[in-house]
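[job 0412] stage=fold_complex status=start
inputs:
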Amino acid sequence: MFEFNITARNQRARTGIFTTPHGDLITPVFAPVGTQATVKTLTPEHLKAINASLVLSNTYHLYLRPGDDLVRDMGGLHKFMQWHRPLLTDSGGFQVFSLARTRKIDDDGVTFKSHIDGSTHRFTPETSIAIQENLGADIIMAFDECSDPNDHAYSRLAMERTHRWAERSLKAKTRPDQALFGIVQGGVLADLRAESAEFSASLDTPGIAIGGLSVGETKEEMHTTLDVVMPLLPENKPRYLMGVGTPEDLIHGVGRGVDIFDCVLPTRLARHHAAFAPEGRLNLMNATFARDERPVDPLCDCYTCMTFTRAYIRHLIVAKELLAGTLISIHNLRALIRLMEEIRGYIAEGIFDEKAPLLLKQWSNNAKRLVHG
Amino acid sequence: MFEFNITARNQRARTGIFTTPHGDLITPVFAPVGTQATVKTLTPEHLKAINASLVLSNTYHLYLRPGDDLVRDMGGLHKFMQWHRPLLTDSGGFQVFSLARTRKIDDDGVTFKSHIDGSTHRFTPETSIAIQENLGADIIMAFDECSDPNDHAYSRLAMERTHRWAERSLKAKTRPDQALFGIVQGGVLADLRAESAEFSASLDTPGIAIGGLSVGETKEEMHTTLDVVMPLLPENKPRYLMGVGTPEDLIHGVGRGVDIFDCVLPTRLARHHAAFAPEGRLNLMNATFARDERPVDPLCDCYTCMTFTRAYIRHLIVAKELLAGTLISIHNLRALIRLMEEIRGYIAEGIFDEKAPLLLKQWSNNAKRLVHG
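[job 0412] stage=fold_complex status=done
writing structure:
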């Protein structure tokens, strides 16, 4: 049911097709994040129009609200949110560690209090898989512990627990129409990462995720970690770099052999009025744009750029009209999805290694927000 | 440039075609309100999909933000908001009286403080027309004073001022591609309304508006007022009942010969989670709908009803996802636009007078919000 066929290679970068019950994923792919069964402010029609193929949703959030049993009873997550292309759910682990209150971790699982109402809950590898089976995404994740990358002493403990939990997750899984990915952890310590990559490679899973990056380490540590991990992973399985990232991170990741990415960045920036643009990341609320008749990006093919001026979007922001967030979200997501389309083209032509430095340069001015246009 | 041809009649109700520079309006028509150059949370594509033909925007708001000179410099309101079908702007009068602070009215105009930043501004018939010419809507309004319907003593004063201001508005107007409508005022006093209707009918305008209703009078007073006013207006000009209204108001209005309506009700209800439904106005946040797999209205053809369940929309509301407002706005607007389509069909068939009581009965349970489904 889950096949991965590599269609082109260029050094360590590759394009491929990952077959899922809801259609083929052409990789490398960037997945918009739909935390609460919706990519914030967008309809599924908007997502189809920007050529989104994979959407991520968060197990922790959906378990708490509306409840995974409700989603199951409503026909599963695809039907509930009316996204009939591939879906991915995380294990809930990361959110428990980053969002929930007063959590207590033991070898069996994690007890935590909901960030919504303070109620007490418990996740174990078995409950995480049961919840993800209720949700019914095409790609699901083993329950893991993501440790602070700067707490080296704790990294081994968290990694070993992640390995034991991966085995329990795999054992708990019952649905044949879901691909369970194990997760490589180990902080930023090369020996732990190597050990975790080898362990994850040994599991019988259709794909492998790399967790614990973009969580506080330096860019160099992220790259070094990927350089250690990627060569140890099997060629014939898709690799998913969780929660990453910026345009530069995507380019670096693809160059190191990553196939799947997700990140809240494009939609989160949109809610803060920031848009990807050729001259850099723009703060569209700035008065500079009050009479700017250009689209956000004159070369972009999204609905926002094909239709509206910066002046209009700036007006919506100043007038506190929610449509601003919708329009910038459409553009920012399309910008990253277009970047992936461009990258796939370069890999297919065998010129990604030549083009990567140019792409990095082109996107480097989007690393931080520009106040002026 | 502005022609109005009546295509069918049924008692006092009629269907017609009003020709504008941005296309024909098929009447009777309901106009969604896009106060700040956007129908809240919707794209122009959403509006086209629900068959919206006329959109109203507010002169007071656009004058303050982003400024009518800016809109003019950006190519006018149609281009700015990318709505290429007919647009209507009000005169700003009503908003000055209902929103602005510490206003001072004299015979020449109104001085007021902005509700946004307290800055002082002045509207006169001449400035209102100049602003509306900068905005460039197809249908524009004479500057008027809407008096409290319960302040009978003041109603004559306000009406007479409205008449003088209508003459000045007409004189100030320069653009041939805009249709200026005079406004019938007079509170709820039959003699004043008759006088105002006759005055408005005497002006050389392509259409006539009826103002000062749905502002605090009783339903019976609204109907009585329309019964006085409508027979005094010329048959061959479209009549626009400003700021009205509820589904019942639309049915009553059409029955009395109204051609154009606008109201914030459908989008305002949507922001408060209320949706028009066959069983009545639903509060979709209610727990009753948590597992309700039906669309909001099983007979509705809008994107929301064709795609999503009540359970999903309820989840979005509870999870504070803005998409809820978008989806309910689409449905509520489509519900009133469909009602107008249905009404036009009945008029064309000559059975509106038979069907009106049934329509009123069908919509009567939408008059107030139901807590339970």
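[job 0412] summary: The first strand of chain B starts at residue 4 and ends at 10.
[job 0412] exit 0
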